[in-house]
Design brief:
The complex is a heterodimer of chains A (175) and B (312). Chain A is an alpha/beta fold and 175 residues long. In chain A, 27% of the residues lie in helices and 27% in strands. Chain B is of the alpha/beta class and 312 residues long. Chain B folds into 2 domains: 12-136 and 290-311, Aspartate/ornithine carbamoyltransferase (Rossmann fold); 138-285, Aspartate/ornithine carbamoyltransferase (Rossmann fold), CATH 3.40.50.1370. Chain B is globular and about 60 Å long.
């Protein structure tokens, strides 16, 4: 186990505070959870910002990147899409991408392309709970990270959420 | 279940219920995409698609072309009227010549039933049947069923009547297969002369009386009278056809329930349905057209995902 429920709780609150430092009232900022796994983290952060830090009306959207991926027809398994739900325009907004694990950076590359369909953002930042060091294929780094992890190729980082798996925990799994 | 069971879409007969559900779920995502301000995704940017239309078409060809472009595929168009087909070239030769220009997928409409099936056996590309004679028109049936699902929530358990020229209609046959696979009950209605002889063997009931058929159904799919395929007179006059099998507002209002009215287009206004019906809220004719693009994007995307990258 990399993080237990208490450590995740602390990390989420720290990330929320870091976001507030840079975005104050979130008046011109939108959160975008990357489907499928980033939405749990994004919803948690929204709840913390609204209930614990009394920030009103945080805008949250979900972005599915399936049709923008660069491994279509190249990976063995078929790609399955999730729902995109962005009912706002990102034109001239500050966008914060939220995903659970940053690994090769290819998902974020796809997300950078996908978000353009919704306008031209003022700037884009990246928040991840787990940052896997030394495994990037692209020059992409997070602006906010919960925990940095050194994991080798054969290992897998799994983030579990109460909403989905019944517990808050992050595991390093040997495959 | 996240991959089609087939490499070509030749007819609804050849695909499974799971395939249809997968196409619908994928189409849901594409429907969201085509309602964005930028309606395009890059998925098929390294795929080339040839649209081969050996028979006239406006709606289907435009719909396919738009779907292909929304997926970023390269598209070439071909219509038989201006081609070497007129000079006597065979179908396989025509298609192989086109494929040697590195084409990955072929969307084909052809006047002969089974042309798609034949082609799939003889050439190395993914084939999508966009209508083969009076045989099948699978993407039309998919978008019809998708539109029913969108309007009524589901297709399973619904009662659908297909009215008109069943004999010459590829839309009818594909619709019957699709609706039955999804659990709907299907009746057909129209002049006896325009009913195929053994239609009951498909598990559909022939109802000669339009009023009874409409009173029974949740959805009425009004087919076009295909004058161009009628070599002999199948009914005395258009006026008589309209009186017996045309739907008008008074008839719909007398049903004491609201049914959904569909039409695959092009409409002969005042023949199969009157203008006030075609433009009413009960009609989902323009929804069908919009859904056509999303459903065709789903079919193209799912079939393209089965073309392995290195086999190009």
């Amino acid at each position: 186990m990399l993080l237990n429920a208490k450590e995740i709780h602390i990390a989420l609150h720290r990330l929320a505070c870091q976001l507030i430092e840079n975005h104050d009232t979130f008046a011109n900022t939108v959160l975008v959870g990357i489907q499928p796994r980033g939405v749990f983290l994004a919803e948690r952060l929204k709840t913390i910002l609204e209930t614990d830090y009394k920030i009103k009306n945080i805008t949250l959207g979900y972005l599915d990147i399936t049709f923008y991926r660069d491994d279509f027809r190249r990976s063995g398994k078929p790609l399955e899409a999730s729902k995109t739900n962005i009912d706002f325009i990102v034109e001239d907004k500050k966008v914060i991408f939220i995903d659970d694990v940053l690994y090769t950076g290819r998902s974020i590359r796809s997300a950078l392309t996908a978000i353009q369909s919704f306008g031209r953002p003022l700037e884009i930042e990246l928040l991840t709970l787990i940052d896997r060091r030394f495994s990037r294929h692209l020059p992409i780094q997070p602006d906010y990270r919960g925990r940095q992890v050194d994991a080798i190729g054969g290992e897998k980082v799994k983030v579990c959420w109460v909403e989905n798996e019944g517990e808050d925990a992050v595991y390093l799994i040997n495959t | 279940m996240s991959e089609l069971s087939v490499n070509h879409l030749l007819g609804i007969k050849y695909i499974t219920e799971d395939d249809i559900h997968l196409i619908f779920e994928t189409a849901d995502h594409f429907k969201e995409v085509i309602n964005r301000s930028i309606k395009k995704v890059p998925s098929l940017r390294d795929i080339t698609i040839a649209n081969l239309f050996f028979e006239n078409s406006t709606r289907t060809r435009l719909s396919f072309e738009l779907a292909e472009k929304r997926l970023s595929a390269d598209v070439i168009n071909f219509s038989a009227a201006s081609s070497s087909v007129k000079k006597g070239e065979t179908l396989i030769d025509t298609v192989n010549n086109i494929l040697s220009m590195k084409v990955d997928m072929v969307v084909m409409r052809h006047p002969n039933p089974g042309a798609g099936v034949f082609l799939a056996k003889h050439v190395n590309a993914s084939i999508i049947n966009a209508g083969d004679g009076a045989h099948e028109h699978p993407t039309q049936a998919l978008l019809d069923a998708y539109s029913i699902r969108e309007r009524l929530g589901k297709v399973n358990g619904k009662k659908v009547v297909i009215v008109g020229d069943i004999l010459h209609s590829r839309v009818a046959l594909s619709n019957i297969f699709a609706l039955q696979k999804l659990g709907a009950t299907v009746k057909v209605c129209g002049p006896k002369t325009l009913m195929p002889k053994h239609i009951e063997k498909l598990g559909v009931v022939f109802e000669p009386n339009l009023r009874k058929a409409l009173a029974w159904c949740d959805v009425a799919n009004m087919l076009r009278v295909q004058n161009e395929r009628m070599d002999i007179s199948y009914f005395p006059s258009t006026r008589e056809y309209t009186q017996q099998f045309g739907v008008n507002k008074a008839l719909l209002d007398s049903l004491k329930k609201e049914i959904v009215v569909m039409h695959p287009g092009p409409i002969n206004r005042g023949v199969e349905i009157t203008s006030d019906v075609a433009d009413s809220k009960q009609a989902i004719i323009l929804d069908q057209v919009q859904n056509g693009v999303a459903v065709r994007m789903a079919v193209l995307y799912l079939l393209a995902s089965k073309i392995k990258h290195n086999e190009d």
